[in-house]
Amino acid sequence: MGAHEIRIRLGGVSRQRAYQITSRADFPKPVADLAQGKVWLTEDVEAWMKVHRRDIDDPDD
Fold it and tell me: Is the pTM of this model over 0.85?
C-alpha cells in the first residue's frame, strides 16, 4: 500500500498529515522505497490502525 492508499484508509487525511503519521516511530517500516514512494504491507498498516485509531484522530498527538 502506498501513501495515497494510506491517506484513503485514514479517512482522506491530507498529504502532510499522512506524512506525519507514516513518519511516527511506531508506524510500520515500509517494505520498499521505490521511485514513486514508499510501500507498506497492508496487513501491517491495518494492524497499526486498529491499535492507534484514536491517536491518529487527534491532530495534537
Answer: no
